[in-house]
Amino acid sequence: MTIHEAHQLLKNKQLSSVELTGAYLERISRVEPEVRAFVTVTDKLALEQAQKADELIASGHAGPLAGIPVLVKDNMCTRGVKTTCSSKMLENLVPPYDATVVARLNEGNAVIMGKSNLDEFAMGSSTENSALFTTHNPWDLSRVPGGSSGGSAAAVVAGETVYALGSDTGGSIRQPAGFCSVVGLKPTYGRVSRYGLVAFASSLDQIGPLTQDVTDCALVLNAIAGYDYRDSTSVTYPVPDYTQCLTADLKGLRIGVPGEYFVQGMQPEVETAIKTAIGKLEELGASVDWEVSLPHTPCALAVYYIIAPSEASANLARYDGVKYGFSYQGGSMWEEMEKTRQYGFGAEVKRRIMLGTYALSAGYYDAYYLKAQKVRTLIRREFDLAFEKYDALVTPTSPSVPFKIGEKVDDPLQMYLSDVCTLPINIAGVPAISIPAGFADGLPIGMQIIGKHFAEETILKVAYAYEQATDWHKRKPEISETAQ
Ligand code: GLN
Description:
alpha/beta, 11-stranded mixed sheet, binds glutamine
């Protein structure tokens, strides 16, 4: 059931939020042994919130999210509920406050079902870097759900929640959305408050929705977007009603297809599916330029893996065993600090901290970090220029369908490559959405639609028109339920 469907049923009193929540909790207990998307199930809290929502609905004052189950990625602070970042470092951390997005869900009387698994501190593309466990792709349990918001995406398509929140630093909403066949939006940098999101790379991080369709995506964005005085990078632009732009007609819309995103070595079925999908956009009235070039695209991966680890190394310096989370006891002050970080962080997080510290160190700053920032500006300008000619750019979300669990864990470079199509978007700070666009041998393929800064309405419109003309988003995986 989607948000808009559930809302109708609740409003017409055909269903109560307590019943709906109960049904989802039941589903969670049945499929969770296979999928493993949840770090924490907040069943008691959810039923309390559902009860409250029912009272509100009865009084006729319920908004579009009231009484409807949502899952929150476990790197967003939830007051009184553990927020682990899937790290040993924060395994027992219970924040005393809510992230702004969580507060906004609560104001809308959403029902929070729990916290979802991720790659440790959102570093990864498969959830295999979670220090707790790996999430399985509901379409094929031997494959990864993508990452780092793999728990959120898997739970949505497995029917364990109606929708979820994820965070995206280099693709972590869109790539798992593509791998699980759900809709995932990374808003423009600054559109959604990052207050209470555990920072990975602050100039790239952005929170966004993972939903079953585009209408739901617009509804969630309505609720979470907007200025927040607690995040100085959030912008004061007014938030439109994003559901207003959802029309099935693309007449007059100019779409560009940048050749660089059809990278060498990409899976042929993915290329074919995306080109067919773009043909569909043409049928729907858009004019498509198939020959766009964004020549700096190949630099994005290198730029990202300088900038993101640099910012991460600064952000993660706070985990010293004194202020938050895990604290190794028994040694000198320095020894305690060292051991806290040695045992608290996993291998990938340490790799990023080392890369970042190196890139920022006095002798190398100009050669790496400063150079990366300069190339970042070039990439951004290239997008600005493209958006003078096109309303949207369309690309694959990933070069392949979901890969096998274990296939890339020992090869970080291969793992990094699974985000080649999504990283440039964070570097430029523009918005992009991934929507279901086909299957290859039963495995999902995602299409990415990119817009200019603050043009979420345009990409939602393109996504909606495509969704109306296809039914990929209606397909659901069969998961054998193992009653506990
Ligand atoms: N996979 C990318 C990385 O490992 C992006 C992660 C993200 O968007 N949080 O950094």
